[in-house]
Amino acid sequence: MTTKIPLELSAREKNDLIAKTNKQLFQSHGLRVYNLISSPGAGKTTLLEKLADLLKEKFAVIVGDLATTRDADRIKAHGSQAVQIETGGGCHLNAEMVQKAFQKLDTTNLKLLIIENVGNLVCPAAYELGEDEKIAMLSLPEGDDKPAKYPSLFLRANLVLISKTDLSPVMDFNLERAKSDCLKLNAHVRIIEISTKAGNNIDTLVRYLMGK
Amino acid sequence: MTTKIPLELSAREKNDLIAKTNKQLFQSHGLRVYNLISSPGAGKTTLLEKLADLLKEKFAVIVGDLATTRDADRIKAHGSQAVQIETGGGCHLNAEMVQKAFQKLDTTNLKLLIIENVGNLVCPAAYELGEDEKIAMLSLPEGDDKPAKYPSLFLRANLVLISKTDLSPVMDFNLERAKSDCLKLNAHVRIIEISTKAGNNIDTLVRYLMGK
Questions:
Q1: Would the CB atoms of B142 and A65 count as touching at under 8 Å?
Q2: Is residue A159 helix, strand or coil?
Q3: B176: alpha, beta or left, given left = phi > 0 and alpha = psi -120 to 50?
Q4: Which of A19, B5, B11, B160 is most buried, by CB atoms within 10 Å?
């Protein structure tokens, strides 16, 4: 499945056309698809390892990094499929990269696909990949001021995960301030506080992701 | 002081031309200038508050954010000059933004200028601003795999600050792995481990920054 692209379109418009094809493709396979965006080190891959433990062949990941295949290797070790995209310096995934990577997945038992974007709070937010929803992840060590300082992501995210909540005893993070800043940007956002390490609210998150 | 830009240049080439003018401008004022780059929440602004406490009118900051003037306000409250650049969604500073911001600084007693880039490990690394050196900052909660996963920054940085070392008792961060990955990318890099909260190695850093 490929998309015919008129020559006169801008890069962003081309991307959005391919994203639309991706969305149809995902729907034709009965998949729920999320675009997971955060800073480097917020805990995306650790969470995805946990989801792989729980969901195995129902779950797959397409993961983007500037370099290395470490993240895909980590997820495969937990029993789910994972396809690595190395962007070679690119600061975000685009719909074409995702379309190519998706062709490498066996969709037989697949229900849930998470696209782990390049660790970056800015650029990934601007590119549609064909996902159902964007998920923004913010870890306690990053600070409660980030939703206000990086609005482009937080106003587009349907779900905000506040992660590493096990660190709250040693962190100066004002949860109410972070939540209220998220809600100012998007009154309909869902916010779930999780700790992958302690296992907190992972069950709530799985129900959300599976659409239950 | 402005730079004449031939029309046929690419955006990157234009930037590099303006960066060269900036460098001459900084040198004519006898300034040491650093471009500080990290993920959101690695502790850049908290460190700059500490430097403002110590250096007062000898020190100034030009700080870039997508939105808000919180960072500049924080630094001014500690006794140094600070000029905020709001990029309006842009994922990195460029040399022209810095040139305009620099005109707002009183350089009479100034010795040290730090440009706090937008929190992003990818895009800021590719744009020269006229600085003497790039500083990469990596906090313990982000994980020891980041130098290998974000090589574009770490191979260009002259100095790597490993920050929030006070969190080492609760973090699974392999310091030797992080350092060895940095040295593989740049054999001449200087690495300083700091904790702004505990005050560790701030004196070493100040000596480095002042060129002593």
A1: no
A2: strand
A3: alpha
A4: B160
CA nearest to B195, candidates B155, B158, B161, B148:
B161
Of the pLDDT bands very low, low, confident and very high (cuts 50, 70, 90), residue B12 is: confident
CA separation, residue B145 to residues A51, B30, B52, B121 (Å): 21, 37, 31, 13
User: B119: which chain A residues are within 8 Å (Cβ-Cβ)?
Assistant: 39, 121, 149-150
Q: Which residues are CB-contacts of A34 (< 8 A; sequence separation ≥ 6)?
A: A112, A113, A114, A115, A131, A132, A133, A134, A135, A159, A209
3-state secondary structure of A36: strand
Cross-chain CB nearest to B149 (options A66, A123, A141): A66
Residues of B with CB below 8 A from A152's CB?
66, 89
What is the value of pTM for the model shown? 0.91
Sheet strands (E) in B89-199: 112-116, 133-139, 159-163, 190-193
Please give the mean pLDDT across all residues of chain A.
Answer: 95
CB half-sphere exposure, B6, CA atoms < 13 A: 6
Q: How many CA atoms lie within 13 A of A12 on its CB side?
A: 5
Is A24 an interface residue toward B (CB < 8 Å)? no
